[in-house]
Amino acid sequence: MMQDESTSQQTRQIGEGGSRWSLARVLIAQGFTSHGANLMMLGIFFYMHHVYQWNSRQNLLLSCAQGVVYVTGALLANKLSSAWGRRGLLKRLQVGMVVLAIGLFYVRGAGIVTAGLLAYTLLCATQWPAMESLVSSGASAKELSKRIAIYNLMWSGVGAVTLALVGTILAHDPSWMFLLAAAAHAMTGVMLLGGEKDPPPTHAQATPDPELLPMRTLAMQLSRVALPATYAVSYSLNALMPTLPLIKALPQARQTVVASLWMVGRWLAFVFLGVTTWWHVRPRAMLAWAVVLLGSFLMVTLWGNWPAMIVGQLLLGVAMGWIYSGSLYFGMVLSDGSTEHGGYHEALIGLGSILGPGIGAAAEFLGNGTQTVGIKAVAGLIFISVLAAAAVSLQSRRKAG
Predict the structure, then answer these.
(1) Would you say the C-alpha torsion 315, 302, 43, 368 has a positive or negative sign?
(2) Which of 137, 150, 194 is nearest to 22 (CA)?
(3) Per DSSP, which regions of 38-141 are E strands?
(4) Mapped to the 3 state alphabet, what secondary structure does 114-141 carry?
(5) Which of 98-112, 269-283, 288-302, 367-381 has the lowest mean pLDDT?
(6) Which CATH class is domain 19-191+201-400?
(7) Cα distance between residue 83 and residue 255, in whole Å
(8) CA 116, 128, 359, 364: dihedral to nearest 10 degrees?
(9) Is pTM, for the whole model, over 0.85?
(10) How confident is the model at residue 137 (pLDDT cuts 50, 70, 90)?
């Protein structure tokens, strides 16, 4: 009897994610890997513009190609984590990303660098579902909200600081971007070392209350429409930012400081959402923020003045943070923190990074290289997404009525 009770208690502890230190190590690990990812997947657009004088269409095409391999990597994560375990998969991925980043430090030529970046993106995308699942598994709905809040604050805060520093790195020595990324992934691997077992999901704790199920289901449906739109904006904006007239007029070191303001807005949104819970029962708030997403994107890219650039970026970041948090929270609480759902979540991100930059690049090509045409094409895609989200919300209201 006593042995069974001890075993049950141990199982509950594992189900809660193991020791606090084990969970903290995973969170610290994702902070390090976020640093590498932001250098290699966001800062890289400033690198390509600075080193190879790439224009907005070339950057958009790179972003679109990243999206294609990102979806592939995200969907592979569940199968690979089943074979190696989540920690085992993450350790292997860090080794691969360290090797690629060091290799890119030594190579030259836009074509070779692009190929290396796409290989890196494939590995990077595969890690996020496993990381999200490790953080989420075994938590009750209330505890899950706290964990996701900390997780979001970690990667978004690291991302904002990293992108802000990219301009200084480029002004000093552009190749150091790759060495810093390699060091970040090496530290991630170190933090993941240890004999901890993957925590299993605890279905009894993670199953949502029956009365909340329709509301959470609506929220996940809305997020599946809005999340790709969010990252269509994000990846298009990242690709466009180095070539926007206001940004180009700034000194190199200050360009990425200004370009990271939307990430500050996103971080502030994560702070607010992390200390509140009322949004858990207001899924239609994501629809309102999808409208803000469209308007703020146009403010940043087309208005051409500093107040619009600053205010627009902050609003854009808040909208992105709200939609991202809703997608991750409602999906994880409905799936018991599964790696499979994490894969779908990341695949939707990849889908957005294909559609937004892809449509923007195609429009620029058809518009004889006019950047404004590409921006309007991306805005049109976001407008369609807003209409789709509104249709989902209306259909849910009719069913409820």
Answers:
(1) positive
(2) 194
(3) none
(4) HHHHHHHHHHHHHHHHHHHHHHHCCCCH
(5) 269-283
(6) mainly alpha
(7) 43
(8) -40
(9) yes
(10) confident
The whole-angstrom separation of Cα 46 and Cα 122 is 20
Contact 378, 362 (CB under 8 A): no
Domain boundaries, the chain: 19-191+201-400
Instruction: Classify each residue of 189-201 as buried b or exposed e, where b means 16 or more C-beta atoms within 10 Å of its C-beta.
Output: bebbeeebebbeb
Phi, psi torsion values for 137, nearest 5 degrees: -60, 140
Calculate Rg over the CA atoms of the chain: 21
Q: In the prediction, which pLDDT does 200 show?
A: 58
**Closest of 323, 313, 257 to residue 284, by C-alpha:** 323
Q: Tell me, what's the pLDDT at 193?
A: 85
As a whole number of angstroms, the distance between CA 361 and CA 22 comes to 44
Q: Token digits for 94?
A: 């860090």
Give me the pLDDT at residue 66, please.
Answer: 95
